[in-house]
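Project standup — Tuesday

K.O.: blocked on the structure for the chain from last sprint. Re-posting the sequence here as requested.
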Amino acid sequence: MALAARHVARNKKKSRRQQLEEAKAYQAGLEEQKLQQWLEKYDRDQDGGLDKDEFAELVKGLDETEDVDQEAIDKLFAKAQGGKDVDKVNGEQIKEAVMRYKEYLAHHEYLDQVMRKFDKDGSGALDKVEIKAMLETILKDGASLVVHSKGRAYKLETLEAAHASGRLDKTTYRDKVNKVTGTEPGAAPSIMEVTDDDVDFVMAEADLDKNGTLDKEEVLASLAAWTTLLKRQTAAGAESTSCSLM
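H.V.: unblocked you, prediction finished:
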């Protein structure tokens, strides 16, 4: 118990940058595990790559409730090929293309709403100001990537105003926010604000063409990075609560 408590205390002292880098490494580990599962299941000759038929089986198996047409599979396979005319795609190519597609299947409705809400100029991409606003909304909606009703956002804004005016002390404010967001009462709070470091990290991770904005596909990658951190923060809070109850 004491060891776990010290571990949580050390985590609180880590910089946001360290937390983000750890979240990135954690996500990479999960993706590598998933890739190995896919290869074990779909790589029939066990040569470490997938031909087009094997690749198609993988894509169709991601969500059996969705019918994936051949054109979509062809485009995805071409993306995995990376502009090269090869018969098979290797592990890294599979991971890059299929992970993005998998995230899109899971979160495309949320992604579409995010783009409609924050792409103020209709350019099809988000700049840094719009990205920060997006992250702040995700922070309120939680790592589940479900857009909540106005009522929840209103409650959070009301609590924030009450805390800022001194009508709520820090502990009471934290517990009320945790109740609204579904976190266990008394748990260590999750990230309470979006910093410029967060925006810079997301841009560095997701802005693949380095043009200073995120298009729809890049926004999807940024959501994965950000929600991984939120989930790890929530887990750390739960661990802290568990330790305090022992």
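K.O.: great, moving the ticket to review. Residues 1-9, 146-151, 184-190, 235-246 have pLDDT under 50 and may be disordered. The CA atoms of residues 97 and 118 lie 25 Å apart.
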